[in-house]
Amino acid sequence: MEKRIQYLAFGDSLTVGYGAEEGQGFVSLYRQRLECLLNVPVSLRHAGTNGATTAQLLETIESDPQLQKDIQEATLITITAGGNDLIQAAIPFFYDGDNTVLKTALQTYESNYRKLIAQIERLRQGIQTPYLLALIGLYNPLPQIPDAAYWVQRFNLFLRKLEQPHIQIVQVYDAFVGQSALFLSEDAIHPNDLGYERLANQLEVAVSLQQLQQLFM
Question: Which residue in 12, 28, 85, 190 is the catalytic one?
Answer without folding.
Answer: 190
